[in-house]
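Illustration 12: Coproporphyrinogen III oxidase.
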Amino acid sequence: MSHVVVVGAGIGGLTAAYFAIKAGHSVTVLEASSRVGGAVQFQVVETSEGPLGADVGAEAYASRSRLVEELMKDLGLANRLVSPNPAGSWLYLPEIGAVPAPKLGMWGIPGDPHAAEVVAALGPEAAARAAQELDLPMDTWAKRRAAGESITVGELVADRFGPTVLERLVAPVVSGVHSADPYGIDIDTIAPGLIEKSIEYGSVAKAIAALRAAAPPGAAVKSLRGGMQKLVDALTAYVQTHGQLRLRSNVVALDARARTVHVEYGDLVQADHIVLALDAPTAHDVVSTITPFERPALLERPDYGAGVGLVMLALDSPALDAHPRGTGMLVSPSVTDVVAKAATHVTAKWGWARDVVTRLSQHRHIVRLSYGRITDPSDGSAPGYATPEDALSDIAFTDLATLFDLPEQYVLDNIVGADVARWRDAMPLTTPQNVQRIDAVRQAVEHFDWLHVTGAWFAGTGIAAITQHSSALSINRLQ
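Figure caption equivalent — predicted structure in token form:
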């Protein structure tokens, strides 16, 4: 039986530990902070009637993942699985304001350019241009794929559908979900296999329609009653029962000869395998402590994105009872009257959250607003991660009023609680240079058959992608 040391207790580290234990290994998890879960976090807003909580990190997972479903069952969480309100989300666009988001699409790319909601969002002229995509040859993109060239979301969408689709449908989604510039993110990162399918069908829209038609029935995402923190709690309990979890254990160095991790102000932990479930900048720092002649050269340290600030608001508002913006909104980067990049109407999206808040007040709602785009200046001057809490909350009050078409004074009079959460290490910078730096860390780690990496920076965004990566690691590498 091998001893596996997992460095980091985010969702990547916890799932890596879970699968390693299931494979028969002895496992020790070392976490630098005092909390587990990483980008899965449940936050409580205090109100006069009592505390209210909701996810302020990952709030769901892609339901197409059978592996996550099996994980949930094994951890005894199957009876907690829930689907979101099928009403869908909205977009907030320049000039026209709030409109329902197209129902058939992928990352904002329409699967039916003729759909009424696409025409409403684009206008007749831009919608007609988008519809031309159905008959445009894919020759250029087939040649680029054959040549192994990187294809960004921005260049593909602008060429195939026109710039208005990029600005009004795709940019709000890519910016809101990935905090990325469409021209700075590879299409394979968010939609693996789409280019190949588009070449097969002769159209990106046709490929998306086919992929959606072939998808299993039901919601595209699922969550857990009570929030995704329940998954973290269950994984933590499993690791503590069958392995060892040590908090406040900051790993600062590796000894390649002894296969040992050095814990700051602590001991040395020997392992047969070491899994770095860390963000790439921290993984870079740890890997760089290995004697230079024993590892490939690393590039410059990878960089974080600008970071994100999230404001969670609780308010009493009969005007929100009818869910006037569906489950929430994604905001076009081109708008000038709203600062937020996204707003989630939590109590409209998740029935369990609605049930909790209405026990306290009949018209109680929770809305979560997100701030910080990848295009923000690095000096922290744009509202987001670095903005003081009171200032960010004030911006959120104004944005909520605009997005939901409410008088600002009405919002201010009915707020009953607010809190701010901040994320930085969960957000990699998406420039080509940073992608190369991250890949250099991965290549350096692969130089050793006992050293491995996992987590969102290396597996991709989302609980399903991370879980799949951690599972493959335990099956193929931890021998």
